[in-house]
Structure formats: C-alpha cells, structure tokens
Amino acid sequence: MSGEDFESLEKVLETCVPEAELREVRRLLFGKQLKKLNLPQSALDAAEEQDFDLKGYVFEASPEQLRPPRTVRVGLIQNKIVLPTDAPVLEQITALHKRVGEMVEVAAICGVNIVCFQEAWTMPFAFCTREREPWTEFAESAEDGLTTRFCIQLAKKYNMVVVSPILERDEIHGGTLWNTAVVVSNNGNVLGKSRKNHIPRVGDFNESTYYMEGNTSHPVFQTQFGKIAVNICYGRHHPLNWLMYSIHGAEIIFNPSATVGLLSEPIWPIEARNAAIANHCFTCAINRVGTVCATSHHDFGHFYGSSYVAAPDGSRSPGLSRTRDGLLVTEMDLNLNRQVADKWNFKMTGRYEMYAEELKKAIQHDFKPNIVKE
Amino acid sequence: MSGEDFESLEKVLETCVPEAELREVRRLLFGKQLKKLNLPQSALDAAEEQDFDLKGYVFEASPEQLRPPRTVRVGLIQNKIVLPTDAPVLEQITALHKRVGEMVEVAAICGVNIVCFQEAWTMPFAFCTREREPWTEFAESAEDGLTTRFCIQLAKKYNMVVVSPILERDEIHGGTLWNTAVVVSNNGNVLGKSRKNHIPRVGDFNESTYYMEGNTSHPVFQTQFGKIAVNICYGRHHPLNWLMYSIHGAEIIFNPSATVGLLSEPIWPIEARNAAIANHCFTCAINRVGTVCATSHHDFGHFYGSSYVAAPDGSRSPGLSRTRDGLLVTEMDLNLNRQVADKWNFKMTGRYEMYAEELKKAIQHDFKPNIVKE
C-alpha cells in the first residue's frame, strides 16, 4: 500500500477512524472544519463523465460592520499529460488545451472567479532529462503565444481570471527561456507575468539547464476578485519569497508546482500551509499527477497531485487525489486575512528593520556569525 | 472526544488505522519512519513511578567518508505546574525544581547530552492575567539566580547542557524584565542567554505588559555536542527569526513555548517543522501541559503539550501527550543537516541579497507596493 495505490490520506482517515475521534483528528490535522461547497449537479456529472475529481469547500470569515464579505471562488486544476511525450509538440499542446479547457468549463459552472493551472501546464515536466529537444519547443511568448491566446479566450468566455504557468520564450532578450506564470484578467487582458524566483538544483532537476532565477521580483496583480500573486514551485521552500509577495499585498498566493513522491511528499502539506499562517493570507498549492514518461530518462516516480488550499487561520482543505486529474473549488471570504492579522499581528511584531540589517550583514563574504564559545 | 480527553493524534492513528495503510499514513504525516530508541529499563521504570511519559526516537544520517557521525541525544521536558498558583512563590519554584530535577535524572540515565525545559518553566504561565503580583516575583537573575544555580548543579552532575527558559530580572538595566533562555554548558558554566525576540499581543496574551522584544539578537551557542540556539515561543511564527539563527550556524533550534488549544493547536505541528525543513536543521518544539489556574482569570483552556522534534529531511518524531508530563529523548546525527542542505540547497538558492534590499525598501513608511492594475 504505497505509491500510486494510495489515493489520499483523507480517504483512509475517513474510512478507518470512528466518527467520535475523527472530528478531533481532523481538527488537529486540518484545523477548523470546513463546510462542503454545494456544487451544481451538472458540474458533478460533467466531472464524472470526463473522469476527473471535483471537490468544493468553503472558508468562512466573521461578519464585519463596515466591510461586506469579499467572497471569491478559486479553482485549482491538476492533471496528467494527455498524449505520449513523443507525440508531435503542437499535438501535445493542443491536447492539453482541450483537456484543461473542458475542466475550466466545469469550473465556470461552479462559479469560479480565478483559476490556476499547474506549473508548465502545456508540456511534460521533462526538465530532469537535460535534453533540449523537443522540450524547449514548448516555450511560448507570455504576451501573445498560442497558450496565452487560448487563456484570453477562456477568460473572456467565462469572466474568469486565468493564471497560466508556462515555459516562456523571451524574444526581446535573445530568446531566453523563463519559467513564468501569465496572469490574464477576467476581461481578457494580459495583466502581467511573474517569473519563478528560485530555481532548483535538486537531484535530477537542475532546472538552470533551461532557465535562470526570475527577474520580475514580487508583483501582485489587482484583479476584480482580489489581489493575487504567483510563487512558482521551488519558491515555496523559501519563506522570504512568500513573505515578500505578502508584503506587496497579496491576498491569495498561488504555488503551481511539479514535484515527485519520494523527494518531497511529506513536506508538501507543510510549506504552503505554513506560508498561509505566517503571512495572514490564502495559499493555493497545485501539483500535477502522473509520470514524466520522458522516454530517455530513468523512472523516478510519479507526481503526487494532492493540491490543496490553506487559510491564514491554519485551516486547510483536504487534498485532491494523489493520482487522478482534479478540480478543487474553494470559496473564500478574503476578509479572513485581516481578521487573522488583527488577531495574531505577525506583521506588526515582525521587526523587519532588524532583519533587513542582519540579512545585509549576513550576505557579506566576511560575515562573522554570532557564535558564543565556552 | 476533545480537549483533555484526547491524548494524542498518534495514539488514535495507531489504534484505528490498519497496518497496511498505517505505514503510508505515517509517511505522509510524519516523513521517514524513525527507529525507536532503546531506553534503559531503569529509566522506563522511574518514569512510570514518577508518572510521566518517556519516549525515544532516532534520527539517522548516511555514513560519510570524511566525517564520523555526530550523534547527540537531546531531551525535551514538558510538565504541569506542581503547586497551586496561590502557594508561596518560593515554594512553587522549589517544587518545580524538584519535579523537573527528577525528570532530568531520568534523562541522564537515557544518555541525554542537551536538555531543554519549557518557556518560563519555574512559574505558572500567568501573563494572561495582566496582574503584576505575585508573578513578577518569579523573575530571577539569568547569571546567578536561584534557578541558574540549580541548573549549574544539574549540568555538572550529569555532564549535560541545560537550556533553562526563565523570567529574567535584569538588575543592571533598572530591573527590567525579559523572557530569557539561559544556556549552561555541560561544564556548569553559564554560556550566555538568548532573549525572546518577538512578543505576542494576541488575545489575552499581551506579554509586553511584562517584557519587551529581546535585544540579544540571534546568538548561537557552541556546545560540546553541537551548535544550538533558542527561539522562544511566539518567535516560531516568524520565519525570519528561525532563518537568522540558522544563518548564524545553529544546528539545533529549541522552541520552548506555552500555548493553548483553541488558539494554536492545528498550527503547532506546522511551524517548527517548516523551520527545520526551510533551514536544514533540527528544531525542538516544547509546550507545557495543564492549565494556568490563575485564580483571577477566566478559563481559556489547557496547554496542550505535544512537544516534538523535527528534522531537516521533513521527518518528525511523534508528539508527547497533550495532557501528561513527559520527557522526549531523541538521538540525532547532526551530519544530516549538511546532507540535506547539499541535496536541497536552500541557502545556496536563497537570493538573500535581493531580500535584504527589498526588505529595506518595504519598511519605509512611504513604501509603494508593486501592485499591477488593469
């Protein structure tokens, strides 16, 4: 019972733990119990027919006197690649557009306002191979590539903000590649892009073979439904990265990722959730499912999905499946952020001035650590 | 089934989840399975007789060619107060010395090299009351107070480093109070002290009624058994605080705490563990058990114990009980820190120069967040 046989932690707990204890087990593991979101039957039917999981939860906030609730519905999509990795590049891209487009249609039926796809969603996550061809052919212009044009159509059709993480080809800087999330507003305008700030050199994934540390800093996108930011994949290991998006005002930080079981699975539920707690905001962690299937490369296990949403009060949604395509819909009242911030006061008590100074000293090559000896 | 009836998550899982699934549930929740530490029967007998839990686990590292294993045994002690809060102050202190002294004796039998007690361990954690008397009478000199002298005796007797978090009276600065951890070397010398860097203003705990933000920065103590630091209580919510101890070289960061169930319990397993992962070090989270019992104050629940150790590879020990006194002994090979760091490279990829600059800008009163609008 491991690897791909094991669908999800949540399912095992529900099956095995008696109701009397389950409530407390859930509280300890997942925080405040969330209501299930009442999803339209037509959406549930469509998900079943198209063979993906569809789940929905609600993060509530307290009523306030001066602010109405600021309710937004967020959709996270995790999916396998559709065609074999040796199919023609354009066919692979088109097949993914079709698959994810159908899932977005279901998201629209569920009233989703902002949807985010997984990291490099238009391609196999083949950066372990170190091969250039055909993988670099999946790169596109962030501003007017095939995929951005597709996302603009989706955004307009469904009045939905679309966060689209792709492999970017940057023609105005010598055709450089970047790992980039494109943010399209619900009016179908490209609001901007956010590049991956931290690049892994972990095991077979030295992604700096393909692209380097992003130069877009920590942009926050003011959408009609709230202020959002995108912390791509490996950036979730860096608490300062989350912090800086939050300091720039992000209310929801997406973390589109691609990560495999033996490497990171036990730390997956910890990092994005810690970031939601530490920064008084919502975080949305998305991981793909399936295997890389890059024919030239040895097997290194499967991407374990388990996409989830974490709230500033420490509560979190159950994860999607470890193995199946899925759409997670969460309704969140963004007023919760300030309510939790006013209670816990991490920004007020953060002493950032001290840390800015200490960090500046610490990066000097002749830094002397404060080590007390006997 | 909640509150004080519920002994621990780990116990429920062991009872309810079948063996076939339990292995994978444990991996997902706690990371790599730890070996149990083989503890002497005399220690187990003493613990049972003195009515406290005693548990032991081993964190292993891979063998290296050039470095021998750097094995250290660390003991965490969580306990209730012993006498009622209206007993004479000196009697309360002495009773706690006796109780914890007995537990340290058992730690010594288990071969513990470094022991850490809970926050403000010589007193009821009565800072919710806002009353000055008698609570400020529990304050002592860090250098030569009653409790430090007691810890020096323990350290010499058992050849053990003792981390002793107390309420400090700082006579050379006008008798100011601080929340301070005193570090006594295994030779019985006061190595130094580390003051609580971040002070809560949360609910009834505005501890700045008593003491302010610490001015000792982020000292790391080079002991015979490894480099240690102390991040007291509310500092665990601040990722920069953990980071800075780590940057100064800490291999083990203790987090002596006092926190109650409804406030923080679901986030307790997340924060110290995230810090171990993010900083490639061990973290030791300690929380007291029992209630405040400060007669003048309304009931706000019990301290939920659940002390645990987290490792840089994302694994963690089970928690001690939510309700009972306990001693958690972990044997850790500190070589694991560098092994994980060399694999994940968070410091190498941390881009601290960028963050030092960004943080410096962000603290200005006229800071302009990077918000992209349509």
TrEMBL record, chains A, B:
InterPro entries (alphabetical): Aliph_Amidase/BUP (IPR050345), C-N_Hydrolase (IPR003010), C-N_Hydrolase_sf (IPR036526)
Domain of life the protein comes from: Eukaryota
One Gene Ontology term of the molecular function aspect: beta-ureidopropionase activity
Biological process (GO), any one: beta-alanine biosynthetic process via 3-ureidopropionate
Coiled-coil zones: none
Enzyme Commission numbers on file: 3.5.1.6
Protein purpose: Catalyzes a late step in pyrimidine degradation. Converts N-carbamoyl-beta-alanine (3-ureidopropanoate) into beta-alanine, ammonia and carbon dioxide. Likewise, converts N-carbamoyl-beta-aminoisobutyrate (3-ureidoisobutyrate) into beta-aminoisobutyrate, ammonia and carbon dioxide.
Classification via PANTHER family: BETA-UREIDOPROPIONASE, NITRILASE C965.09-RELATED
Family classification: Belongs to the carbon-nitrogen hydrolase superfamily. BUP family.
Protein name (Swiss-Prot/TrEMBL): Beta-ureidopropionase
Protein's gene: upb1
